[in-house]
Amino acid sequence: MTFERSGRVNRLPAYLFAKLEATVEQMKTQAKDVISFGVGDPDLPPPKPYLKYLTEEAANPKSHNYSFSKGEPEFRQAVAEWYRIRFNVRLDPATEVTALIGSKEGLANIALAFVNPGDKVLVPDPAYPVYKNGAMLLSDGIPVVMPLLEKNGYKPPLDSLDLHAKMMYLNYPNNPTGAVADETFLKELVDRAHEEGVIICYDNAYSEIAFEGFKPPSILQIPRARDVAIEFHSCSKTLSVTGDRIGFAVGNSELVSGLLAVKSQIDSGPSTYVQKAAARALKEYDSREISSQLQANNRVYQERRDILVSGLNKLGLKCLKPKATFYVWARCGEDSLKFAEKLLSVNVVTTPGVGFGEHGEGYARFALTIPRERITEALERMENVL
Using CA atoms, how far apart are residues 76 and 233, in angstroms rounded to an integer? Predict the structure, then answer.
């Protein structure tokens, strides 16, 4: 017996990172020594206090009951307090904060909440595939590409861009390019969104992975941003807990309410014990500075960044040192799939840029989530095929 999938599912391309994971798994079953720069999954440990809190909360039988769809009050209050300390942004935890099972599901569900069939939605390119595929195509929206080009610092040219659409997605610090946005750019973005009446879905998952004193802003720091914007955040990268699936969305109360209307029909919120542990970890922030262990993690990422960027440039793969994220975006000088296949021949895995959209062609993304010794070894292997 066969069953026909819906048209919207048939329109979806294969998920890039699922294919990468399958490739790595297959290579490992063949006993190959694989060095993977593919999926951006932190290898550095979560903060020790978080692990302690998680153990304590998981041991509490009451922490295994249903949560509220919008999250535990303790967690929402901790998020609001974190935004006050980190970004000097005041939020109402009752109406402007909701918990997410990782920011990925929130980025998809916000489209289900506000996009009607045929609505135009602006999506960056290259970009995290979820914006276009998981959100737009599954909501029957029409994705309108915003090219992120190297000559523009991987930011959309707002002065010449047609923002006539229902919604737009943006993400800084950026995956995959590592580009950052300052408050001047964000102010122009908010002003244009007011003019056009467009909803801004701002993905800020990498705000705490930054180098050399750079502190990525929240879009909610910008005057009038709360009128048009919802910001998505995740503990996955901040606390190195990608598998715990804990994130949050904050901002415009109508947008948060719409997102919650979808979520309440689909899920019952993240695990209570994970929320409580994350809440206690967020309370470790007592100033705009991140905790000492997270600072130490960032120093490790920065050291890896410097080794990789130097080595790639020596191999003729032009790239810059990113100010934030744990990604390096490099010109590969050829078809990105063919480039990735070359590296696979020496058991090195990278992500072809075209997997992030047509404007990612000619580039490759390297994740800094492997030890520096393995980065050096990978560069030596790459030299043999490039």
Answer: 13
For helices 292-314 and 372-383, angle between their N-to-C axes, nearest 10 degrees: 10
Find out whether 326 and 350 touch, Cβ atoms under 8 Å. Answer: no
| 160, amino acid identity | S
Render pLDDT for 129-186 as a digit per residue (tens, 0 to 9): 889 887 777 888 999 999 999 999 999 999 888 888 999 999 999 999 999 999 999 9
Which residues span the domain enclosing 175? Answer: 48-282
Burial class of residue 116 in the structure, from the number of CB atoms within 10 Å of its CB (0-12 exposed, 13-18 middle, 19+ buried): exposed
Domain shared by 197 and 333, yes or no: no
Based on the structure, what is the number of domains in the chain? 2
Query: Across the strands, what pairs with 231?
Result: 202, 250
Q: How far is CA 106 from CA 137, 158, 326, in A?
A: 15, 25, 22
- Give the residue from 282, 310, 325 where a domain finishes: 282
User: How far is 343 from 352, CA to CA, in rounded Å?
Assistant: 11
**pLDDT tens digits for range 182-236:** 999 999 999 999 999 999 999 999 999 999 999 999 999 999 999 999 999 999 8
Q: Which of 302, 298, 303, 151 is nearest to 238 (CA)?
A: 298
Q: At what angle do helices 253-266 and 103-114 cross, to 10 degrees?
A: 100
Q: What is the DSSP letter of 217?
A: P
Please measure the distance between the N-terminal and C-terminal CA atoms of the chain and give it in whole angstroms: 48
Cβ contact 200:224 at 8 Å: no
For the question of whether the overall pTM of this predicted structure is more than 0.85, the answer is yes
Residues 6 or more apart in contact with residue 171 via CB below 8 angstroms: 124, 127, 128, 131, 202, 203, 204, 205
